[in-house]
Amino acid sequence: EAIALLEEAYRASIRYPALRGFGGELLEAYVKAGKADEAARLIDDLLGAARRAAPKGGAPLANPLALYGQSLSELRRFVEAERLLREALAIREQAQPDAWTTFNTRSMLGIFCRTTLYSLWFNAPRITNK
Fold it and tell me: Is residue 3 within 8 Å of residue 31, measured between CB atoms?
């Protein structure tokens, strides 16, 4: 029921800009409910708006990139998550090389890559000699 209400509020935000904050709330609800496809579509929409609002490669774009990358990672959409996290890191390394957010993004990407490799290793089919 909560997701339906958040979806309604998000749709209304097209006509009423004061409701734009519901996109993040809806994304969080999708992630907690494990609705990966819905979350990915919403992220595409939210990220498009963030790209239009921020200057090309501007530091403000790094925040939504990192946030949405983390959300996709939680939903095990690793390819999309890695792409967003790498883009966020590139922006932050250029614009804010010594900021804690740059180190945090680098750490998230490192943890993400290690987790992905472990997942691939432990879920890979094993060859056995008989």
Answer: no
